[in-house]
C-alpha cells in the first residue's frame, strides 16, 4: 500500500498536458458562452471526470502538502532504525608540532611524555549493538508509524477524489438547471405569443397577456441565478484541480445511473479491508504495542560490541615507526536506578496503547455507521429519482394538454400557468435528484475507502 500511495501522490504531468491539449483542440469548435459581467466571449475547457480526478491528485496543493507526511515519516523510520545498525567511522590526520628546548632528534622524552615532531594516524571503528531490546522495539514501532502515515495520505487522497466528484456533479447540476430555465423561458415566450394572438382574435382577455409577461419576467432572473451558480461551481472545481479559478471548465459526461449494489454486509466487509483510516489505526495500535516494549526495555541491560583498527606514527614508542593497533571491546550496561524515567515512559506508553485500541474500535464503529447511512441515502435518492421521472412525464403531458386547450379557447391561461410551474418544478427536482443519487453513490464509495474512476477498484454492483 505504501508504494501505491507514494506513486499516486507523484502522478506524472500527463493529465495537465492532456487538458491543455483538449483546450487547444477544442478552441476552434467551441462556441462562445455567455460572459459573466463582461462583453468579451470566453471559451470553455472541456474536461471529463477521470481527467479532473487525475489533475486534482497531481496539482491540488493541499494534497501535495499532505503527501509530504510520507517522506517525513520515512525519514524518521530510518533515524530510529539507525540505532540497531552497525556504525563505521574512519579518521585520518597528520599533525606537525614543535617544543622548543626539548626537541632533539626524532623523539625526546619530556616530562614523562614522548614527543614527536610529526604525527600521522589512520583509524577505523566499527560498533554494533548486540543486545538492545529498546532500540529494536523502537525501530519496529517507527516502521509501523511510518506505515500509518502513508495510510493517512491515502485517506486524504480518497477524500479529495470524493470532493472532486461532488463538485463535478454540482457543475453538471448547474448546467442542467440552466437548460431547465432556458426551456421554461422559451415555453413562456411561446405562451406569451399565443396570448397576444388570442387577445387580437378576441378569444382571451388582456389579463392573460399581462400574466404571461409577468411569468416571463419571473423566470428570467432564475436563469440568471442558475448561470452565476454555474460560474461558482466552475471556480470551485478549478480550485480543487490546482488551476486558475478563472478557468472555465466545461464538464463532459453525465450523472450516474441507478445500479444494483452489494448487500450491506458485503459493503461493510469491503470497508473493513479497504478504508485507509482503519488501516492507519491498526498500524498505530501495532506501533503503540511496540512502544510499550521499548519503554519496558529500560529495565533491561544492553550489550554493545565495538572493534577498532589503528595505524599511527609518532603516537607510540618508537615514534619513528608505523605501529598497528587492533582493539575489541564489549560494553555491558546494567541499569540500576534512573530516577523513575523508565517507569514514567512505561506508564505513558501503556496509556497510549489503550488509547490506540479505543481509537481503532471507535473508527470501526464509525465505518459501519457511515456505510449504513450512505446506503440509506442511496436508497432514498433512488426512490426520489424514480418519483421525479414520473412527475416529469405527467407534467409534460399536462402542459401539452393545457397549451392545446388554451390555443383552442377551451382552457384558461391560469391552467397553463399552473401546469408550466409544475413542469419546471418537476424538471428541477429531477435534476437535483440525479445529482443527489450520484453524490450518494460517491459517499458510499468514500465510506468504503474506494477511489472509483481514478484507480482500478472494484466496480459498483
Q: CATH class of the largest domain, anyone?
A: Mainly Alpha
Instruction: Briefly note the structural class of the backbone.
Output: alpha+beta
Strand-residue proportion: 5-15%
Give helix % range: 55-70%
Large-scale geometry? elongated
Number of helices: 11
Sequence stretches where pLDDT stays below 50 over 5 or more residues: 1-41, 103-108, 457-461
Sheet having the most strands: 4 strands, antiparallel
Find the count of extended strands (DSSP E, 2+ residues).
Answer: 8
Q: On the 0-100 scale, what is the average pLDDT? A: 86
CATH superfamily of the largest domain: Outer membrane efflux proteins (OEP)
Q: What is the end-to-end distance?
A: 25 Å
What's the architecture of the largest domain in CATH terms? Up-down Bundle
Short description:
By secondary structure, the chain is α+β, with helices and mostly antiparallel strands. The protein contains eleven helices and eight strands.
Write the layout of secondary structure elements.
Blueprint: H1 2-9, H2 14-26, E1 45-48, H3 49-59, H4 61-67, H5 69-81, E2 87-96, E3 107-110, E4 113-116, E5 118-131, H6 133-201, H7 206-240, E6 249-252, H8 264-274, H9 276-296, E7 302-313, E8 322-333, H10 341-408, H11 413-448
Parallel strand pairs: 1-6
Antiparallel strand pairs: 2-5, 3-4, 5-7, 7-8
Helix pairs in contact: 1-6, 2-3, 3-6, 5-6, 6-7, 6-9, 6-11, 8-10, 9-10, 10-11
Written description of the protein model:
The structure is a single chain. By secondary structure, this protein is α+β, with helices and mostly antiparallel strands. The protein has two domains: 2-85 and 140-291 and 341-448, Up-down Bundle (Outer membrane efflux proteins (OEP)), CATH 1.20.1600.10; 86-131 and 301-334. It is 63% helix and 14% strand. It contains eleven helices and eight strands. It has helices at 2-9, 14-26, 49-59, 61-67, 69-81, 133-201, 206-240, 264-274, 276-296, 341-408, 413-448; strands at 45-48, 87-96, 107-110, 113-116, 118-131, 249-252, 302-313, 322-333. Strands 2-5-7-8 form a four-stranded antiparallel β-sheet, with no helix packed on it. A two-stranded parallel ribbon has the order 1-6. Strand 7 (302-313) and strand 8 form a beta hairpin. Helix 2 crosses helix 3 (49-59) and helix 10 packs antiparallel against helix 11 (413-448). It is elongated and about 135 Å long. The two termini are 25 Å apart. Mean pLDDT is 86; it is low at 1-41, 103-108 and 457-461.
Amino acid at each position: 500500500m505504501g508504494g501505491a500511495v507514494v506513486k499516486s501522490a507523484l502522478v506524472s504531468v500527463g493529465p495537465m498536458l492532456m487538458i491543455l491539449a483538449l483546450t487547444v483542440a477544442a478552441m476552434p469548435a467551441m462556441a462562445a458562452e455567455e460572459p459573466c459581467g463582461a462583453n468579451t466571449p470566453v471559451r470553455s475547457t472541456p474536461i471529463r471526470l477521470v481527467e479532473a480526478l487525475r489533475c486534482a491528485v497531481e496539482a491540488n496543493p493541499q494534497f501535495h502538502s499532505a503527501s509530504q507526511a510520507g517522506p517525513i515519516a520515512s525519514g524518521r523510520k530510518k533515524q530510529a532504525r539507525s540505532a540497531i545498525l552497525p556504525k563505521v567511522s574512519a579518521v585520518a590526520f597528520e599533525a606537525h608540532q614543535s617544543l622548543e628546548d626539548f626537541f632533539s632528534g626524532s623523539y625526546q622524552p619530556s616530562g614523562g611524555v614522548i614527543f614527536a615532531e610529526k604525527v600521522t594516524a589512520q583509524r577505523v571503528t566499527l560498533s554494533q549493538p548486540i543486545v538492545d531490546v529498546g532500540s529494536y522495539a523502537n525501530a519496529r514501532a517507527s516502521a509501523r508509524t511510518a506505515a500509518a502515515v502513508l495510510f493517512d495520505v491515502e485517506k486524504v487522497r480518497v477524500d479529495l477524489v470524493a470532493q472532486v466528484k461532488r463538485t463535478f456533479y454540482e457543475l453538471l447540476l448547474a448546467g442542467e438547471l440552466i437548460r431547465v430555465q432556458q426551456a421554461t423561458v422559451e415555453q413562456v415566450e411561446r405562451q406569451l405569443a399565443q396570448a397576444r394572438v388570442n387577445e387580437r382574435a378576441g378569444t382571451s382577455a388582456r389579463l392573460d397577456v399581462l400574466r404571461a409577461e409577468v411569468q416571463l419576467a419571473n423566470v428570467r432572473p432564475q436563469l440568471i441565478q442558475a448561470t452565476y451558480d454555474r460560474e461558482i461551481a466552475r471556480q470551485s472545481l478549478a480550485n480543487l484541480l490546482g488551476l486558475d479559478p478563472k478557468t472555465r471548465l466545461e464538464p463532459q459526461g453525465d450523472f450516474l445511473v441507478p445500479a444494483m449494489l452489494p448487500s450491506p454486509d458485503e459493503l461493510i466487509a469491503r470497508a473493513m479491508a479497504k478504508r485507509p483510516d482503519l488501516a492507519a489505526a491498526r498500524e498505530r495500535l501495532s506501533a503503540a504495542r511496540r512502544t510499550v516494549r521499548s519503554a519496558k526495555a529500560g529495565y533491561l541491560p544492553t550489550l554493545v560490541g565495538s572493534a577498532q583498527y589503528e595505524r599511527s606514527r609518532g603516537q607510540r614508542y618508537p615514534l619513528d615507526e608505523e605501529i598497528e593497533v587492533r582493539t575489541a571491546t564489549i560494553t555491558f550496561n546494567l541499569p540500576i536506578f534512573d530516577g523513575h524515567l523508565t517507569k514514567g515512559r512505561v506508564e505513558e506508553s501503556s496509556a497510549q496503547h489503550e488509547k490506540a485500541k479505543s481509537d481503532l474500535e471507535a473508527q470501526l464503529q464509525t465505518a459501519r455507521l457511515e456505510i449504513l447511512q450512505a446506503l440509506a441515502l442511496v436508497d432514498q435518492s433512488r426512490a426520489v429519482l424514480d418519483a421525479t421521472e414520473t412527475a416529469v412525464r405527467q407534467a409534460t403531458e399536462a402542459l401539452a394538454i393545457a397549451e392545446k386547450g388554451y390555443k383552442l379557447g377551451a382552457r384558461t391561461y391560469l391552467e397553463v400557468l399552473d401546469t408550466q410551474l409544475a413542469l419546471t418544478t418537476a424538471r428541477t427536482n429531477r435534476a437535483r435528484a440525479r445529482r443527489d443519487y450520484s453524490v450518494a453513490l460517491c459517499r458510499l464509495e468514500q465510506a468504503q475507502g474506494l477511489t472509483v474512476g481514478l484507480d482500478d477498484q472494484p466496480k459498483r454492483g
